[in-house]
């Protein structure tokens, strides 16, 4: 039976570090408030002129080098982001052109914070059916250029960071149990407006209206408490469903990588699963919430640090706008 294995990982964050003290100068907030509510101390922001696909390309190059492959042998791209360079096209084609990958197909996934796991699920199907043999899966975000630094948007403005993570996926038919064991995807569109960017909206004619700018409708908005409660419940639930499908238990998990939404949420996920917090990969203190990129960045760091080693059971879980949520189990 063919299974999808990860043969390379990489990530890239832009060099500019933005501290909570930097944000204190720009908006009405405090280091104490941010640390206490989110666990975040710093995040990275791009300089003007740097696009989401630029970060994606850097992360992809690192994953390609890590896998030790020739870029020309990649036969498909899956790209996840909520902050594409343009309204259309998506970033998959831009990554393809910048890496000089010829005319291979490029699929864009729009599932926000759950984007990496949704994209992994799609790529896994292509590999297990034999459709593609070497997929570049990349998730990338530039959020910093469209955050509302007024009182209305400060709950979100302090959370987000920019960055990208990538993996190379290939088939394996070895009988060693390695690979993607399962992915479980969920959504509840009734709550779309609880975490969203309302405009631009093509039902408005013209789509871009000055009033919408004045009303702040081009900024992301969330109902923080609703998001908090649902994220804290849905992520452990998704992991348990994945474990049950594989006849595994929480004790079997060697490393849990939750989407780095907010450290308080990650702690709630650990508590909900009754998993020791030492097994939970957490880098939000340094990097903030990088949306779809947060899981592949944390995965790459954990692999390079030796926290994730061959044979380990790795659980991924995410929750975000949609609402969407998901889990994936991988035998490394
Ligand atoms: C945002 C969140 C911290 C708010 O928590 P809460 O318990 O609802 O509210 P709190 O009592 O802690 O704080 C709310 C107050 O802080 C204020 N506030 C919001 N953002 C702030 C900031 N950056 N700095 C200082 N104060 C802020 C609010 O205006 C509000 O003030 P008020 O009481 O005068 O109206 C919490 O809902 C949360 O963590 N949600 C999850 C968000 C998340 O992780 N999203 C990621 C998306 S995947």
Overview of this structure, please?
With 332 residues, the protein is α/β, with parallel strands linked by helices. The chain is 33% helix and 23% strand. The protein is built from eleven helices and 13 strands. A five-stranded mixed β-sheet has the order 1-7-6-4-5, sandwiched between helices. Helix 4 (91-98) links the parallel strand 4 and strand 5. Helix 3 crosses helix 4 (91-98) and helix 8 (224-245) runs parallel beside helix 9. The two termini are 17 Å apart. The mean pLDDT is 97.
Detail the topology: elements first, then pairings.
Layout: E1 3-12, E2 17-19, H1 20-26, H2 31-38, E3 42-44, H3 52-67, E4 76-80, H4 91-98, E5 105-109, H5 115-128, E6 135-141, H6 154-157, E7 163-172, E8 179-187, E9 195-197, H7 210-214, E10 220-222, H8 224-245, E11 255-258, H9 263-273, H10 284-287, H11 294-304, E12 313-320, E13 324-331
Helix pairs in contact: 3-4, 8-9
Indicate the proportion of strand residues: 15-25%
What binds here, in terms of ligands, is: coenzyme A
Question: Which class best fits the helix and strand makeup?
Answer: alpha/beta
- Percent range for helical residues? 25-40%
> Oligomeric form of this entry?
single chain
